[in-house]
Amino acid sequence: MVKTRELTLTAIFLSIILLFAFTPLGFINFGVIKATLIHVPVIIGAIVLGPRVGAFLGLAFGLISMLNSAINPGPLSFVFSPFIPIIGTDHGSLWAIVIAFVPRILVGIIPYYVYKLLKTRLPKMKTSLSLLIAGICGSLTNTLLVMNFIYFLFNPAYSQLNEGLVGGNLYKLVLTVIITNGIPEAIIAGLATSAVASVLIKLTQRNRT
User: Fold this and answer.
1) pLDDT in tens, 107-136
2) For residues 43 and 190, what is the distance between their CA atoms, to the nearest angstrom?
3) CA dist., res. 69 & res. 126, Å (int)
4) GO molecular-function annotation terms (predicted)?
5) In the list 44, 98, 100, 135, which could disulfide-bond 190, CB 3.0-4.6 Å?
């Protein structure tokens, strides 16, 4: 029974990831800022179902991201898919696989342990607040790792894409993206995680009793 419920929830989370990845439902537009929701099901799945399922959902997120970048290429698609040539070259890079998968797999692991740590060390903290913090940490894991990987692994191409900015000026741009896009995404992810995961945790606990 538990395995069936876990498989069902995993399939639901995977379906939501696909829905968010290939439709406008996966984005919230704030004018100049477009916040993605694709990582939210990964975060919630990790907290509710554990880090192994979370890592699987993160792996699926990474694979979908890589394929989507190859099918619908944009200016930065070369950093997520080895099938897209790097700017100024006629070939892709295997480092794109690292960016596509490593941050997303960790999004399916870190929130679980953040939530468990908070519940263990601060047992009086409200579950909703613990989930909020875990959701924020999961989202920031994705943003921080992706942007820093882009800077360190694809520096020349990223510089060329941004009018030749180099060194500190280029990293200021990275920080700008983290602040303007990453923080709103993290807040949204935290609120969504707190709202949805708290209900699912209660339901799973009730079904076990």
Assistant:
1) 999 999 999 999 999 989 999 999 999 999
2) 9
3) 39
4) transmembrane transporter activity
5) 135
